Amino acid sequence: MDHFLYKNGTLHAEDVPLTDIAAQVGTPFYVYSTATLTRHYHLFTEALSPLPHMVCFAIKSLSNVAVLKLLGDLGAGMDVVSGGEYRRAKAAGVPGDRIVFSGVGKTRDEMRLALTGGIRQFNVESEPELRALSEVATSLGLTAPITIRVNPDVDAKTHAKIATGKSENKFGIPIAKARNVYAEAASLPGIDVIGVDVHIGSQLTDLAPFEAAYNKVADLTRALRADGHNIRRLDLGGGLGIPYTRSNEAPPLPMDYGALIKRTVGDLGCEIEIEPGRLISGNAGLLVSSVIYVKNGEGRDFLILDAAMNDLVRPSMYDAHHDIVPVIEPAPATEPAAFDVVGPVCETGDTFAKARPLAPLSEGDLVAFRSAGAYGAVMASEYNTRPLVPEVLVKGDHFAVIRQRPTFDEILNRDTIPSWL
Length: 421
Ligand SMILES: *Cc1c(COP(=O)(O)O)cnc(C)c1O
What we know:
Blueprint: E1 4-7, E2 10-13, E3 16-17, H1 18-25, E4 29-33, H2 34-48, E5 53-58, H3 65-73, E6 77-80, H4 83-91, E7 99-101, H5 108-117, E8 121-124, H6 127-140, E9 144-151, E10 173-174, H7 178-187, E11 191-197, H8 208-226, E12 233-235, H9 254-265, E13 271-274, H10 278-281, E14 285-296, E15 301-305, H11 314-318, E16 324-326, E17 337-342, E18 351-358, E19 366-369, E20 391-395, E21 398-403, H12 408-413
Parallel strand pairs: 4-20, 5-6, 5-13, 6-7, 7-8, 8-9, 9-10, 9-11, 11-12, 12-13, 15-17
Antiparallel strand pairs: 1-2, 2-3, 4-14, 14-15, 14-19, 16-19, 17-18, 20-21
Helix pairs in contact: 2-9, 5-6, 8-9
Bound molecules: pyridoxal-5'-phosphate.
The site of pyridoxal-5'-phosphate has 17 residues, from helix 10.
């Protein structure tokens, strides 16, 4: 459920007509709903209660500082995968003891940043990283709380580019090697082993792979405790999928996911962490765009929008489907026609949808891409020197621009011509 509905024939974000935002901000723009973000965060806290838990929002899915402040103020923790994301969490006022640091390639500088600024835990992904962290922590006279990310070798049955829990993926250490790596971790100075971490992929629409992975984590936890480790926290990752179409998809509900967590690891007495990104942010955002031209081609018609693959890369990168809806509600009996929906970028891959049935649209009409809150704005670029798409946050009947569209002067001033040229 989200808060983007037609009212009086116009698509609204909560109580704001999207036409009002478009008039003030121009298109394209992203718009997020505070009510949807809040609701999705609470679905997880309710699903995990009464287990001791922390829901750490995966910043990489939607990293605007205003959104992080909204979630942080609700009590959310943050899952960061870079020093930049760590800085964003801090800028949003999230205390270090609610920030979890994930990622396969943490640099020593990033480790220093998090150790001195405060960190809940590092999710360590390799032996070389473990040794580097021990060195950095020791040199600072500090201790790094860690989990080790294990790769459970389960097939998440999702798109190959976002599956992370098979042995061929670069993530984590093979679960069969885990006891040896934990033994090394326990022997290293500056390292405090507190738990186990797993994350098997993104956009999972079936709970079975989670169940397989979490059962393996439960077995490993018992074995590690028998080896003498004080395992007291389990980070179970993110990855719960969302419906990208209104009609035929029914991904698992957070409540069922919570029940699965209780069933598989609930009796271990551990604090539970999860790292959802997409389920919190995905359906909390739209990308709004205008029609530049309707072009009648050979056997097909093109809807050419002012949004492009640089603003929303998911369709060209993951073959992702986004529902596209007109901002002005079509009359009830309107017959849809098939359009190829494309952007202005000079790449054939700049195609959002092929032969998509849509109510007829004309130049200047507004359309909205649904489910664009996650992995949308964060993956945007300025390819084709198209200014980075702005972001808007709505609450009730008011809205604010939370990232301005850069001016062309700002864009051009980032380049410098060397004096010798
Ligand atoms: C990407 C990622 C997440 C979030 O995944 P979603 O599918 O957005 O829930 C969580 N944890 C880690 C380590 C990730 O890499």
